Amino acid sequence: MTGTRAAEPASGSWLARIVRPPDPMAVLGLLAAVYLAVFLLIPLGLIVAQSVQIVLAGGLADLPQFGQRFVLLTRNSLVLAGLVTVIVLAIGIPLAVFFVKAVPYRPLFQVLLTIPLLSPPFIGSFATILLFGRVGVITQLLRAAGLPTFELYGLPGIAITHVIHTLPLAVLTLAAGLRTVPRDLEESAISLGGSLTQVARRVVLPYIAPYIWMSALLVFLASFGDVGAPLLVGGNYRVLTVEAYTAFIRFNVDQRIPILLSAWIVVISLCLLYLVRRQMKKTEIAPAFSGEIYTYASPAARRVGLCFCSLVSFLVLLPYLAILVASFGTVWGAGLLPDAFTLRHYQALAGSLEPLRNSLILAGTAAPLAVLLSVVIGNAMREWGRAGALFDYVTLLPFVVSGVVIGIGLIHLTGRLRLLGLALPFLSGPSLLVAAYSIRRLPYPMRVMSAAYSRIDRRLEEASYSLGASRARTFWRVTLPQLYPAMAAALVIAFTRIITELGTTLVVYQPGWTTISMQIFSYAQEGLVNRAAAISVLLIAVVAALTGLASYNRLR
Fold first, then answer.
1. Fold for the domain defined by 64-314
2. Is residue 4 within a helix (H) or strand (E), and if so which, with residue range?
3. 400, 395, 162: which is closest to 272 by C-alpha?
4. Contact 185, 203 (CB under 8 A)
C-alpha cells in the first residue's frame, strides 16, 4: 500500500456525502496556484504577449539598428556564460576530485569554498576592481614583475567575477556526485592495471556525468541571469539582462526595447529550463551509494591535491580578503595596502542602519512566505498527480529567468491593473517587493521541501486515514511534524538568498525601502569603495551567522 493513500471513511449521512465541505489542503493548493499565476506566470506571459504584438504590428521596422544590437547582445550573453562555464568546469572537476578523494582538512576547505556563496556576485565585482583595476594590487605586482596586464572592464572583469562566485557551486555539486561512486568500482579498475588518472577519466567522470552537466547548467544560468557584475565591471560589453534593465529605467529609450529583450530572455530561459529538468531527472535516478568512498592513498596525489585546493581556495577568497582590508582602509592609492586604517566606515554604519533594517523586514516577511508556499506546493505535487507535476516546472521558472525580467513583468502587470482601476494594496509599496522576493527565491526552499516530502513514510499517513482522520488533520498532526527540520533549513536558505537579491530589487524598488544590497551597489557605482566594503562585510557576516546557525541545528 506504500505510495497510495487509503480511502477516507465515508460520512454516515447521505447529505454529508453530497454536500461536503471543501478540503482545506486542496484550497491551500489552489491559493498557491493562484499566487504563482499572479506573480509569475501572468507577468511573464504579459511580456511575451506584448512582444508578439510588437512584432506582428511591424514595430521592429522603426527601431533602427535594433536587429544588430539584438544579435550582439545575445551573442555576448551566451559567450560570457559559456566561457565562465568552461573555465569553472576546467578548474572545478579536478578540484572536486581532490577535495573528495585526496586532501586532508576537508571540513576546512568546504567552509572556505562556501564563503563566495554567501554574497551576491556584485560584491565580488568591486573586489576585483581593487585587485585587477588600473591601480589594483595584482595589476601593480604584474607590472613590477614585467608581466603583461589587461583591461578589467569588459568581458574579463565579468568572467573573473562570475568564475569566483560560481566555482564553489559547481564544486559542491560535483562533490555530491563523486560521493555516489561505489568504492568497489574504482578498486576493480585499479586492480586491472589502470592508473588513477585513467580510472578518473574512464570510470569516475562517466559515472558522474549527470552531475557534471547539472553543474554546467547551474553555472551557465547564474552567469547568464546576473545583472550586478555586468553593471559594475562590464564596461562596453553589454549583455541582455543589463540592456533590458537600463532600457527599462531610461525615459528616453523606446519602451518596446525592454519588452522585446525580456521576452527573448524568457524564451532562452524556457529552453534552459527543459535542460535543467532533464538533468535533474538523470541525477535523481543515478544509482545511490552511501558506503565508503575510495580515497587516494598515494602521497604524491595527496600533496598535489593539497597544493591545488589551497591555491584555488586562496584565489577564490582573495577578493573577499581585499574587501575586508578596504573596509578598514582610508585611501587605497598606488600602494599595495591602504595609506592608513580606520574604524570610521563601520562607525558610519551605526548611524545608517535603515537599509539593513529594510532588508531584514523584507527578507523576514518574504522568506516565511516562500517556505509556506513550498510546503503547500510540495503537498499538492504529491496529491494532485499530473496536475501537481506542473508545479515542479513552474517553481523552477524563477531559477532560470533573470530577476530583472521578473521585476519588469511585475511592473507591467501593476501598471495594467492601475489603468483598469485595480490598484490592489498587495501590488504596491513594500508588499510588491515581498511578493517579488518570495517568487524570485522560491526554487531554493522548494528543492529542500521536495527532498523532505520524498522521505516521508506514507504508512503513517495511511494509518491516520484508517483511524478516521481527515486529510487536513492528517497533514497537520502527522505529515507536518516530519517537515519541521526541513522547514527550518529552507527558511534560512530562503532568507539568505533574499537578503542578497539585487536584480529584482533594482526594478521593483519602492521609495523609502532601500535594501542593503542596493546600498552596497550604489556605493560601488559612486566609487565609495570603503563604505561599500564595510557594508559588504556586515552583509556577509549576517548571512554566515545564519548559515552557521542552520548547520549547527541540523547537526544537533
1. MetI-like fold (1.10.3720)
2. none
3. 400
4. yes
Nearest to 178 by CA among 289, 19, 306, 332: 289
Would the CATH topology of 64-314 be identical to that of 343-556? yes
Condensed to tens digits (0 to 9), the pLDDT of residues 245-273 reads 998 888 777 778 889 999 999 999 888 88
- 3-state class of 148 per DSSP? coil
CATH number for 343-556: choose from 1.10.3720.10, 3.40.250.10, 3.40.50.2000, 3.10.180.10: 1.10.3720.10
Tracing cell 549583455 back to the chain, one arrives at 239
Backbone angles phi, psi at 335, to 5 degrees: -85, 170
- Looking at residue 35, what is its pLDDT? 93
- Three-state DSSP state, 329: strand
pTM of the prediction? 0.84
- CB atoms < 10 A from the CB of 333, how many? 9
Residue 201 CB partners (closer than 8 Å, separation 6+): none
What's the confidence (pLDDT) of residue 423? Answer: 63
Look at the block and give the residue holding cell 559588504: 536
Alpha-carbon torsion (373, 450, 89, 136), positive or negative:
positive
Contact 352, 344 (CB under 8 A): no
pLDDT of residue 467: 79
Q: 448 and 486 in contact (C-beta within 8 Å)?
A: yes
- As a whole number of angstroms, the distance between CA 243 and CA 361 comes to 30
3-state DSSP of 479-547: HHHHHHHHHHHHHHHHHHHHHCCCHHHHHHCCCCCCCHHHHHHHHHHHCCHHHHHHHHHHHHHHHHHHH
Q: Whole-angstrom Cα distance, residue 322 to residue 138?
A: 11
Are 437 and 363 contacting, i.e. CB atoms less than 8 angstroms apart?
yes
Place of cell 533549513: 489
d(CA 436, CA 498): 10
CA atoms within 13 A on the CB side of 294: 19
Ordered by start, the domain boundaries in the chain are 64-314, 343-556
Identify the segments of the chain with pLDDT beneath 70: 1-21, 58-62, 64, 282-291, 334, 421-426, 549-556
CB of 478 closer than 8 Å to CB of 461: yes
CB of 342 within 8 A of CB of 326? no
pLDDT value at residue 150: 86
Which cell numbers in the block locate residue 519? 546600498
Question: Which residue in this structure is represented by grid cell 562566485?
Answer: 165
Query: Could you give the C-alpha distances from 207 to 176, 181, 185, 201, 204, in angstroms and in order?
Result: 12, 7, 10, 10, 5
pLDDT value of residue 6: 43
C-alpha radius of gyration, the chain, whole number: 25
Grid cell for residue 407: 521585476
